[in-house]
Amino acid sequence: MATVEAGVAFQTRDALALFKKLGLEVADPRPIMEGWAEANAAWLRERSWRVDDHSDRVLSHLHRFGGRAKSAPPGRKQSGRKRPVWCVELKLRFRSLTDAARFVERSPSNILQALNRGLRCGPYHWEPFDQRRHRADAA
Fold first, then answer.
1. What's the CA gap between 22 and 92, in Å, rounded?
2. Residue 3 near residue 10, CB atoms below 8 Å
3. Cβ proximity of 121 and 104 under 8 Å
4. Which residue range(s) make up the domain with 119?
5. Quick check: is 116 in a domain?
6. For 23-52, what is each residue's pLDDT tens digit?
7. pTM of the predicted model as reported, rounded to 2 decimal places
8. Structural domain count, the chain
9. Residue 18: its pLDDT value, please?
10. Which tens digits make up the pLDDT trace of 63-77?
11. Where are any strands of DSSP class E within 31-132?
12. 125 domain-assigned
């Protein structure tokens, strides 16, 4: 750190040494630092309380508004679970959207859009797998 005082340049890395050279020596630097330490500790305690309160609010919000029924009816959306799908043309059952997507080399979201809109993904049509309806067709 370079400081110019009365036309004299001082090069030093230690602030206390600089203060001594300038004649601004602090009698005892510890009282200042103790106040900072106490203020920092108080700020850290308050911050941890604020973070804990925020996490409690988020969790209560998730419990109140999030979550779905444990078991969805056939053909309904099941977040985070494997949904078996049926390829109409091939009469093949796939264990999940991901398996079907790998088969046609597309994204699982493309298979999902084909299911929801009744369109094709790749050269095939897709339906949610229903045991009662597709059991007789299964090869």
1. 86
2. yes
3. yes
4. 85-134
5. yes
6. 776 666 566 677 788 888 899 999 999 999
7. 0.42
8. 1
9. 77
10. 777 655 444 555 555
11. 85-87, 92-94, 120-121, 124-128
12. yes
State how far the Cα of 115 lies from the Cα of 125, in Å rounded to an integer: 8
Nearest to 83 by CA among 119, 118, 108, 120: 108
CA angle 87, 89, 95 (to 5 degrees): 15
Instruction: Return all residues near 93 (Cβ < 8 A) that are at least 6 apart.
Output: 84, 85, 86, 87, 129, 134, 138
pLDDT over 70 percentage in the chain: 71
* Angle, CA 77 vertex, CA 86 and CA 120 arms, to 5°: 40
Could you give the C-alpha distances from 17 to 9, 21, 30, 33, 96, in angstroms and in order? 14, 6, 16, 17, 70
Whether 109 maps to a domain, the answer reads: yes
- The Cβ of residue 97 has, within 10 Å, a number of other Cβ atoms equal to 22
Q: Is residue 57 part of a domain?
A: no
Q: What angle do CA 49, 52, 54 make, to 5 degrees?
A: 110
